[in-house]
Amino acid sequence: MSRVRALLTDCAGALGFGALTALGEPGIDLFPLGLLGVAGLAFLITRRGGFAHACALGLAFGAALFAVLMVGTVSWGAQVPAALTIAGALSYGAPLALWVRASSRRLSGFVLFAASAAAWGLWLDLGDCFGLSSNWEILAAVAASPSLVFGARLVGCNTLSGIVIGAAICAGVELTHAVPRQRWLRAGTALAGAIAALLLLGLAARVTAAKSTGSLLVGVPQMNVPSEFFRTRQAIVEQTERFDQSFVSQLNQLRDVDLLALTEAYDGRFALQVPAQRRRFQAYARLERQALLLTSYLVAEDGGGYNAVGGIAADGALVGIHRKVNLAPFGESDLEAGPGFHALRLSPELRVGALICQESVPGMGSRALARDGANLLVVTTSDTSFGSGLVVFGHLAATQVRAIESGRDTVWASASGPSGVVTRAGEFVPGAPFRSATAARMQAELYEDTTPFLRTSWLWPLLRLGFFAWLVQRAVRRRTATMPLPKSAPRTPTWFGAISSLAAALAGVGLLTLASPGLVELRRGVRSRVRFAVAELFKGGPALSGASYERFRSAPARSAEGALAFYIDFYGPSQNAADVHLPREDPGFEGLLDYLRSAAFPSRQLHLNWQRLPRAATLVRYRSGEYAVLTSNGVGVASLFSPVLAAPRILQTHELQTLIEPVGIVPASASDTAASTE
Asked: Residue 150 has what pLDDT?
């Protein structure tokens, strides 16, 4: 029973140290507290307990850290932050704790530091193989002081993460094993040595970095509309009109820029898919002599979708389309992954590497684009649904690290801000404030060189593996612990003390989790928004009222006109049922295709697969003869919009089979309507 009481007490401490580490993360930016949090975990694990004890402490530490980090994703459903917290505890907290327990009883001093740095770097290398990134300690460092991380240009961020974690582990272990008078000095020396190593690597990187080959002015229309806007765009015409007016106003403020970068799927429509819409942007680029990155959704061959960005040169030519490769595990299950990363050659002097949202988190995209000749990276993203959560600035910090590794200035085009440019040294220079509808303007430098890390990225995992294997072999041969254990075990608390400590720790973590958006506003936003940022977790964003689909209503005999209007409006061009005039009441699918062809909106027939319904809006016909528009989430649930009812119906797949014919109409495939870079 004493072990249980000790475990409860130590778990309370691990929760507290996890919360302390969260205070060091991007958005709150108290980096030294993050180091102390990891050191505190190492201290708790080293002073008593076996592997099961260590694993429990690691899970508690990771749960506290990731609960604070991921609470901003609650707008996607409560299960999302819960799942991300569990995943973080399993992939970050538990491995860290188990390594501390395994190494601290056999290694000491510099050997412990070196082994920990190699082991943690290898763990991160393994995550990179699966497109995962958990360099939270280095994200905290780059957000607090980019100079600490500029050495990633030489050795990569996984090496730097290993240095930080190795030093924090050594500091925690020293607090347990060192002579009392020396423990604080030795722990401080370990942390100071790591900081010195980071600064020296950064200095070497700065001295050897090549100079820029040019510069350009970049503009970003930062619209800052609530995420609910995209779900209600067709139902609330007034808000869509206000959005379009605001967009035009911001474009007018950015007429002097060389490159215009739109934020991720900036209006939720399909401008690249619809020829008339796409040509309008091409004409704009030609008129203003501006290169343009046009974001949009695209329809895939099977009726699925792509999240895409198209490159339009200053002469109006569409030079290529990048389809998003790294899809979000939550929120993009209805989309398909693109084929790969290739630079968009907008001019002989400008080759842009486009990254969409979380493609800037793992290193594969930025590295591939730099190797393909991109001399500028652009991240087009929409973190609107995260409110003022730490996820927004964690995402930005990951982009700062990738800018350093690739040696490229990176434009950060964010729908809700702060938009700006990340220099190749990792410094973020804002062009528009956080959560503000403001046109952002920024100067970006162009670079042609290949960083030392890009030339040798394959080598570092091998070096870490060899060094780690040598250290393990050395430790096994010694067979005995190299560090004296504490002479007396920590005092076992009473049941009251253990339970009250755990309850207090849980309450503290919960309070910090809920308050974290307010802390982000204090550090990165505005003080007046603190209370709203916290309340947003419970009630979501601003309420949008006045939703109505009445403009698509049509009589049963003229249902084809209402369905056509909804279908066209879904993809972009604004339409009402009154705008559509068909020569006869039941034109059939051929008649609908003829009308769409005459409206410069190429479409095609698609045979419906009941096991995999199209995610894109699809014109369908009830078996009774009325027309409707079908959309699906790809996992058995569909929405069927009826122009007769002027409302959607949510149905299961098996219900649809008895209601509609097994044929539909979707837009022509993207390869038929736009250039692509495969």
From this structure: 97
